[in-house]
Amino acid sequence: MNKNELVICGMAAVQTRFQRDAASIKRLFFDEPTARKIGHMCKALAAGRKVYRCVDTSELELISGTLHHGGIVAVVSAPQLRAPLESEVAQWASGRVPLLILDQVGNVHNLGALARTAAFFGVEHIILPFSPQAALPGEAAFRVAEGGLDHVTVWRVSYLDRFIRELVSVGYEVVGAATRGGKAETSNLPAERPVALVLGNEEQGLSPEVASVCSRLVTLSGSGRVESLNVSVAGAILLWEFLGRNRRGLSSPTTPR
Question: Closest Cα partner for 221 from 186, 169, 189?
Answer without folding.
Answer: 186
